[in-house]
Amino acid sequence: MQEKSITLEDGRKLGYWTYGDPTGIPVLLFHGTPGSRVWFKSDDSQAKAMGIYLITTDRPGYGLSEFQKNRTILDWALDIEELTTYLGLVSFSVLGVSGGGAFAAACAYAMPDRVQKTALVSSAAPFPEGKAPKDMAKENRRAFFLTKYFPWLMKRANLAQKKVLEKDPDKYIKSILKGNHPHLAEWDRTLLKDKELVELSLYHAKEAYRQGVEGVLYETNLLAKDWGFDVNEINGPVRIWHGEKDTLSPVGEVTKLAQQLPSCEVSLIPEGGHFLTENEELWIDMLAYLKDWKASVVLT
Which of 35, 138, 194, 233 has a Cα at 20 to 30 A from 202? Predict the structure, then answer.
């Protein structure tokens, strides 16, 4: 099992794992909502070949990381500050995928002297007036609505998903492979026909629900609120990769986010959906961007 953890100053456990080259350029990878530290079955050959030290994490309530009451998006930066200090890293870059984008932005905001570059991939964006944008897939909008107003219904649905993942993984895999997924872009539907990719998503999802469902329910509500910091105060370099056909995080809201970032480059993928890191060419492009700075580590 891919299991490493540290105990934070407040006594909570924080889970993480590492891939690639441990002597390479450090990049912290933040999962979506829900998600976990498990990104590859063994290692990432691209990160290793490119000399990148890829560090994945579990946010509170996911995987190995203990639930944190009343946490904010900015609180994540404090956890990452402790983790990177423990790992002996002075400087590093961050990559946030989907819901993880908000947490990557928080780290860039809170640690400008340590975060060298920030990548936001298929990122969430702040909700206008706390409401999911109308051009988001109705399935996603419904999840945000129910989590806020009828949390018991979403808890029941997530518990049912957790039960299938743990008790009948074959059913989960078959439902993904054979499903039509009409609310997703063609890009995403094609990827969900890849059995190896779907099997990997099983491990990723099982770890997401390892402790229960409170983590995803809390975070879903958290992402719908004000992020708690001004993104226009993120002065470090940011690059956004986003699919123009993304139905889960509409490109229009992300474009608005990009306009608020002082130093932001945007790469829009014309036919791209939500699942961009699964595309090898794009993944290499992301890693190459994040690698392009001189890393420093604590000498011990």
Answer: 138
Least Cα distance to 257 among 137, 112, 109 occurs for: 109
Cα(75)–Cα(263) distance, rounded to whole angstroms? 24
Query: Order of strands across the sheet with 264-269?
Result: 4-7, 13-20, 52-57, 25-30, 92-97, 115-121, 238-243, 264-269
The percentage of residues in the chain with a pLDDT greater than 70, rounded to a whole number, is: 97
Neighbours of 110 (CB within 10 A): 19
pTM of the entire predicted model: 0.95
Instruction: Decide if pLDDT at 131 tops 70.
Output: yes
C-alpha dist (Å) from residue 297 to 26, 84, 167: 9, 10, 43
Tens-digit pLDDT profile for residues 70-99: 999 999 999 999 999 999 999 999 999 999
Q: Where are the alpha helices (DSSP H) in the chain?
A: 45-49, 75-86, 100-110, 138-149, 151-167, 169-178, 186-191, 195-208, 214-224, 251-260, 280-291
Helix 169-178 vs helix 195-208: crossing angle, to nearest 10:
130
Q: Are strands 115-121 and 92-97 parallel, antiparallel or unpaired?
A: parallel
Residue 298 has pLDDT above 60, yes or no: no
